[in-house]
Amino acid sequence: MVVVLLAAASAAASAQSFTVSFAKKLSTKPLDGRLMLLLSTDASAEPRMQIDDTPRTQMAFGVTVDGWAPGVAATVDATAAGYPVRSLKDVPPGEYMVQALLNVYETFHRSDGSVVKLHMDQGEGQHWNITPGNLYSKPMKVTVNAGGTAGGNAGAAPVEISLSEVIAPIADKQDTKYVRHIKIQSELLTKFWGRPMSLSAVVLVPEGFDEHPEARFPLMLFHDHFVDGIDDFRTMPPDPNLKPDYSERFHLAGYNRIQQEEGYAFYQKWISAKYPRYLVVKVQHANPYYDDSYAVNSANLGPYGDAIETELMPAVEKKFHSIGQGWARFLYGGSTGGWESLAVQMFYPTHYNGAFVACPDPVDFHSYMTINLYDDKNAFYLEGAHKRVPQPAMRDYLGHTLITTEDNLAYEAMLGDHGRSGEQFDIWQAVYSPEGPDGYPMPIFDKATGEIDHKVAAYWHDHYDLTAILTRDWPTLGPQLQGKLHIYVGSDDTYFLNDAVYRLEDFLKSTTSPSYDGEVAYGPKAEHCWNGDPTLPNAYSRLHYNTMYLPKILERIEKSAPAGADLTSWRY
């Protein structure tokens, strides 16, 4: 089907509008959510699979719908928030594939009295384009012209789109010999959100786990984004028929095969004789704001930190025969997982015996990527006397800017208002900010202008600026963290995360009462997410999280285990 659209001949002409509706067979009840109109020049995939924050992205325009009834048309027009083109009236002439999608919201009646509408994860990790229950249309071809008779498209009838499809549920992952799953309902989170809320974990159990019920194992908590398995563990040799791909990130041909080879090598090491036996745990804590809670308590997300530490982890340790003591628990992770590993070690200092922190999200908000939240006035620009320089949010390994902060925030604004994009800046805001008067997170800056709210920044400083907290609390916190902090980052991190680590290192190296007795290391010319191995390129070392820190962990266990500790049952 081909629909011809007549675009505006001038900026003053109105844009072609679209009307979108859905039938009662998809939902008999009115729906809330974010309605997105997607336009693509690439027919190789559905438009919903081609929207992201990279230079490759196609176009999207979003509006919020509340109480949208079946059979009633919702309009997407020039007022919709657009990305990377800001308005439908500015869409270049040409031929496009068009698709519409509704990211469905649920109403939460929280225990703090707030009523908010948010998209609840459905087991996919907060990916709006594949979330079960979301509605979408089949793609159709449209032609946008530069103008036409009768003054371009002024007065043209809206293009009608019908949401006819529903994304199917995701089947639960089944246990295997080595990869197991556990899911609990959290009483703490259920109370906060006013509806049943669960926490899950994926657990890699050691060779001989079922044959050695008497053994008790050390536990390595691997903080990461949402995962449904252990993706760097493979029990089968590499697929000989695998078609090699090319990794733009690492500039490597056949990286998919490298991943399979390294995953299989890990498996062979895992089952080998005399290899230390331990548990690797990945927490699943996707929530109404993101695929990850940041593993701390928060005004907007609720007590995820306490729920993980006091509800989920005891259940994991009981079911999977963990030693269950702080000297035998360790943390590691990169990026979001890096920040979490450091924060959890700090906020629950006796629960863990060491954190291996790779490429952490900003650990000092003087360096919130390229933004100084305390001293800068604007998040989008470096401002001088007579000029403003756009600030980057992402760079390649040669330093080329891939996306600016302003553009990144436009992407999130298209995906959702009130901090509901499900993306990076919005989850930082949801975790770190106080609750606003409307029940949603208080914005740290204006997404349209970039103006920073320094009162909100002051709240961030006191509650989640990890360097500030260490500085403030070191007299009491330092003795509990001595020897536990290991931090690694590339000197050319893609998201400028090394800048905040420089500040953290300055504090750690200046402390003497007590000294921190850990390590901070940098990977020369390394981008995101260098994780501390100076002998291998990051493309390989990132596949070794579950083994690369083991020698240091075993050394720490030998030095710090209490008298009478179990150092043998797990060394079969």
Question: What key attributes describe this structure?
Answer:
alpha/beta, Rossmann fold, eight-stranded mixed beta sheet, 12 helices, 28 strands, 24% strand, disordered N terminus
Radius of gyration: 25 Å
- Name the overall outline: globular
Helix content: 10-25%
Query: What is the CATH class name of the largest domain?
Result: Alpha Beta
Structural class: alpha/beta
Q: Which regions are unreliable across 5 or more consecutive residues at pLDDT < 50?
A: 1-13, 147-154
In the residues, how many domains can be counted? 3
Tally of alpha and pi helices = 12
Just name the CATH architecture of the largest domain.
Answer: 3-Layer(aba) Sandwich
Mean pLDDT: 94
Got a strand count?
A: 28
- If you consult CATH, what is the topology of the largest domain? Rossmann fold
Query: Largest sheet at a glance?
Result: 9 strands, mixed
Cα distance spanning the termini:
66 Å
Beta strand %? 15-25%
Description:
- This protein is an alpha/beta fold.
- It has three domains: 2-166; 179-364 and 466-489 and 539-560, 3-Layer(aba) Sandwich (Rossmann fold); 366-463, no CATH class.
- Helix content is 23%, strand content 24%.
- The chain is built from twelve helices and 28 strands.
- It has helices at residues 187-193, 255-271, 304-319, 336-347, 405-415, 424-432, 454-464, 466-481, 498-510, 538-541, 545-548, 550-560, and strands at residues 2-6, 18-22, 31-40, 59-68, 74-76, 81-83, 94-109, 115-118, 135-136, 140-145, 159-163, 165-166, 179-185, 198-204, 219-223, 246-247, 252-253, 279-284, 297-298, 302-303, 329-334, 355-358, 381-383, 388-390, 392-395, 401-404, 485-490, 519-523.
- The strands form seven sheets. Strands 1, 3, 4, 6, 7, 8, 9, 10 and 12 form a nine-stranded mixed sheet that branches.
- α4 (336-347) links the parallel β21 (329-334) and β22.
- The longest helix is centred in the middle third of the chain and has 17 residues, at 255-271.
- It is globular, with a radius of gyration of 25 Å.
- 45% of the residues are buried.
